[in-house]
Amino acid sequence: MSESTDKQDYKATAQDCIDDLRRLALEDDTKVLSRNYYRNNGKYAESVWNCWFGTFAEFKRQSGIVLTRHQHKLERDLAKHAAHDHYREFNVVRASYEGRFVRDNKARYQTLIGVCDIHDKECDPFALRILLDSVKRIQPDVICLNGDLFDLPEFGKYNVDPRTWDVVGRIKFVHENVLAPLREAAPDAQIDLIEGNHEFRLCRHLADESPAMRAVLSDLHGMDVAKLLGLDRFHVNYTGRADLSAYRLCDLKKELMRNYKVYWNSLVAHHYPDGQHLGMPGFCGHHHKHIVWPHTSGVFGAYEFHQTGAMHRRTATYTDGEKWSNGFIIADVDKEKRDTLFSYIDIRDFAVVGGKYYYREPGEQ
Hints:
- The structure is a single chain.
- This protein has two domains: 3-62; 97-364, Metallo-dependent phosphatases (Purple Acid Phosphatase, chain A, domain 2, 4-Layer Sandwich), CATH 3.60.21.10.
- Helix 4 (46-53) packs across helix 5 and helix 7 packs parallel to helix 8.
- It is elongated, with a radius of gyration of 28 Å.
- It is 38% helix and 19% strand.
- It has helices at residues 3-10, 14-27, 35-41, 46-53, 56-62, 69-96, 125-138, 167-185, 197-208, 211-216, 225-229, 231-234, 249-256; strands at 109-115, 142-145, 190-194, 236-239, 260-263, 267-270, 282-284, 291-297, 301-307, 326-334, 339-347, 350-353, 356-359.
- Strands 4-3-2-1-10-11 form a six-stranded mixed beta sheet.
- By secondary structure, it is of the alpha/beta class.
């Protein structure tokens, strides 16, 4: 670089640098305006523009080539509100099913069977057999499917081999092997499905009609959320209060915390362990491991909050399934005294429910 050029660079103002960067951007809009591209084609040395802008990203912001921080924030806010409009219809539909098929039993003593994390075709067949037989024998007043009835790894965060994708098969499995047998085993029971993170993702993809949804649900085209989840067909109430338009990850988690149901003002079912902070006996799932937390309150005295095991088979291919446990819970409630007794059903290669022994058969491995 000549002495005259050095002097010219030294006297260059911020506006001179901006004008030169804009010139390059207009000369060939097919080129990516990178730091190295300007180094080779720009008029001013890196030390010149750097003293004005610090980083090349800021250099482009000040030149109006990319959005400024304020413009980018405004763009995100616009997207957030546009998303809310987009998802509002689905939010209304989901909310309308929360109490659509309530079976109001006036008896003082109520029995609830709570099951978490069935995960459609990933369900352990032995655990499913025990659940269905127990429902038939006990005839509970309420069957609570406490989140993640579906697995649908096609829309999940884990890296699953696309050759194993079968969304339609998974949805049909839930209808034919879980919901239909449950309704047949206990025709008078109230069945509730509390939205877990897997159902939430399904609803978002359905609302967006994403490419993945169009590709894997082509033969179920036109099905709405109620048909996909089997709500009308099997008379299932759906608790899905989470706003589908939640934008940031922290907002998504906060919205999912709203998916819970309180029974007889005595018992809470929540998909996440955060439900124990609601201050009453209850149960959750999500983590596929049985844990019991003791609590005390002036209303309920000493009580328990259970995190149940999953119904998901433990031979999972995409996570540490060997660390999980299988099981479901039975809760008997005295509505007058607001008192709850829990019986947790631990499922291994055998299980015991109400004095009846179950043993895993060879085909259920």
